[in-house]
Amino acid sequence: QVEWLKNEEPIDSNLDENIDTRADHNLIIRQARLSDSGNYTCMAANIVAKRRSMSATVVVYVNGGWSSWTEWSNCNARCGRGWQKRSRTCTNPAPLNGGAFCEGMSVQKITCTSLCPVDGNWEVWSEWSVCSPECEHLRVRECIAPPPRNGGKYCEGLSQESENCTEGLCIQDKKPLHEIKSQNIETASDVALYSGLGAAVIAVAVLVVGVTLYRRSQSEYGVDVIDSSALTGGFQTFNFKTVRQGNSLLLNSSMQPDLTVSRTYSGPICLQDPMDKDLMTESSLFNPLSDIKVKVQSSFMVSLGVTERAEYHGKAHPGTFPHGNNRAFGTIQARNKATYIQNLSSISTMSELKTTAIFGHLGGRLVVPNTGVSLLIPHGAIPEESSWEIYLAITQKESSLQPEGTDVLLGPEVTCGPSDLSVSTPFALTIPHCAEVNSEHWNIHLKKRTQQGKWEEVMSVEEETTSCYCLLDPYACHILLNSFGTYALIGEPISDCAVRQLKVAVFGCLSCNSLDYNLRVYCMDNTPCAFQEVVSDERLQGGQLLEEPKLLHFKGNTFSLQISVLDIPPFLWRIKPFTACQEVPFSRVWCSSPKPLHCAFSLERYTPATTQLSCKVCVRQVKGHEQILQIQTSILENERETITFFAHDDSNFPAQMGPKAFKIPYSIRQRICATFDTPNAKGKDWQMLAQKNSINRNLSYFATQSSPSAVILDLWEARHQHDGDLDSLACALEEIGRTHSKISDITETEIEEPDFNYSRQNGL
């Protein structure tokens, strides 16, 4: 007797017409169904004994299929150019048991244009009508020049006017109309006469009182004060006329300087090249430059803290710089603030932004120190018994990639190579970016430079493709690639709300004149490599970081950037005339530039004994975000406390080879891959692993890999190169139900290889 078992349960072909076991005791499944998945065993028995075959596992998989497209969404712009989108899901049917994921895009976007509202406007008045029996004639107008359209406002005012047309010939209440008018005119003339006399009397009284007070003041103090700062906009010495005899007072303390002076000048204020060591002179400030407007407030007003703007305290963006230092300051003589000064000794010079190392079959990691750029070579990507010299570099000269229109370069241009090598497993390239990630405001593209020097698009971040994969984090983009080359990220703003994150930093140094102190305010991309470039240039000029840099959200709404110096201590410091506030056009801030934008301010001490500087630097976008940096520093280097700025100083390990380069031990990695690469009827496979690691799109890329779980873990390694949070990964595995203990505990109890000592020493 021969019978078949499915999952240790006997199969009855009489109950299921889809299964036939009669033909030579073979098991025939006529049409594969999901319910047919399972372990099948053949069992033969006679009077003497029973024999069982080895189990055969049958997995019925289902390839995914796209659902229908949704309707196009409404245009997101109420007026002008915008976009609309539609989407579909891979649920018709959903892929099961390792079936292929749908190929193609899940989201489509197209541009759209909304009609702008047009307000109505009056046409010219018509000619006057014929005089009516009521002694009036009319004229009219219509709201048709243009008429209101698309919800625009209707014209304001009257559409009809009337007036008398007989010049007094009409009879009103049995009197000639001209007699009634003459009586009204006489009454109006009397009112005007009395009003004029009253105003004259009041004016004479005010004049007498003013002359009396002036003469009394002259006889009491005998001095006239001329405040030249009210005329020039800067601090100047006071000039006094000859003191009259018998008066011991030199200055009338009750007299207040004129704080209302405000002027607008044009001049080459903002400098683009930070290597220019020569600060502007007063004569250069008056050279015309049409595209820069500088609004100057009186320096005397600013130094006393008398301004019309309210004081805003900007909130720094979390996760970028050290926080938690709540500081309160007294007078300059009482307390000295520990400023945020960059320790420049550990920062690489701009000629060293390249890292090279030799890698083998075990893989490793390359890092350009303190730039946020890294390259992860997975285990097995390089053939056994082979070793390659691989390099990672950042382009320092002006990029050959010139964005079109309002497109911007969001990060550095990165080269990895040699370009003629190819790997069997995708490597992970990490490039920092400065965009505030939002798919409704940005369309971000990855581009690659060809051997002919031209740039071609590799993919859009939102695109579904199997050639490569892009994962966009808030501050970096992690890219899975199979070929080396030169890559860059380009951002296309699709709305005015697109935000480019700028880092604002203030540096200072003494000038050749011992009484002058130079402040340089930088607005650069919020990427570590952009800041390192500024730090390297400032080191050559002897500059010091004066305050913790802050994050400014600069919108693509065409409004300019304003930088001003406020609250300079009076009688201790003064600022050069016409430089208290500087304005930079939108195009110079938004468009990519090989050198970071900076503005220079020159401050002058009254005496060499002044060694402390306290002021505020305000950086704001018109109708946008604002940040205020509180400067409290000593201008003497030996009194300044220094701290290291970079939160992750990776200059000590630019290259790591073998197991030490990875956070997940290799044996644990193998167990995870063996578990999740195997299809499972309950859906607990690599797709669930991707979902728990916030990888929710373009899953078709992983489906084409020989080990999808391994590629997902490589992407996890690239994202967590600094924290190495194995506990979060273990929690994700526990949620899936594959493991019941944390990876960090396993590595301490089960792994005894000496290669992992480095991980345990670092708390992993």
Automatic annotation (TrEMBL):
The UniProt entry, under InterPro entries, shows: DEATH-like_dom_sf (IPR011029), Death_dom (IPR000488), Ig-like_dom (IPR007110), Ig-like_dom_sf (IPR036179), Ig-like_fold (IPR013783), Ig_I-set (IPR013098), TSP1_rpt (IPR000884), TSP1_rpt_sf (IPR036383)
Cellular component aspect of the GO annotation: plasma membrane
Where does this one sit in the cell?
A: Cell membrane; Membrane
Q: Which terms does the UniProt entry file under GO BP?
A: axon guidance
Its keywords, alphabetically, are: Developmental protein, Disulfide bond, Immunoglobulin domain, Membrane, Receptor, Repeat, Transmembrane, Transmembrane helix
Membrane topology designation: Single-pass type I membrane protein; Single-pass membrane protein
**Residues spanning the signal sequence:** none
The domain of life is Eukaryota
Q: Predominant location of this chain?
A: membrane
Please state every residue range assigned to the domain named ZU5: 353-493
Domain Ig-like: from-to ranges? 1-59
Q: Kindly name one Pfam family recorded for this protein.
A: UPA
State any single GO MF term: netrin receptor activity
Q: Does the keyword Acetylation apply?
A: no
Task: Kindly list the residue ranges recorded as spanning the membrane.
Answer: 191-214
Q: Please report which protein family the annotation says this sequence is part of.
A: Belongs to the unc-5 family.
What's this protein's function?
Receptor for netrin required for axon guidance. Mediates axon repulsion of neuronal growth cones in the developing nervous system upon ligand binding.
Which PANTHER family does this entry report, sorted A to Z? NETRIN RECEPTOR UNC5, NETRIN RECEPTOR UNC5D
- What is the name attached to this protein's record? Netrin receptor UNC5
Where does this protein come from, organism-wise?
A: Sagittarius serpentarius
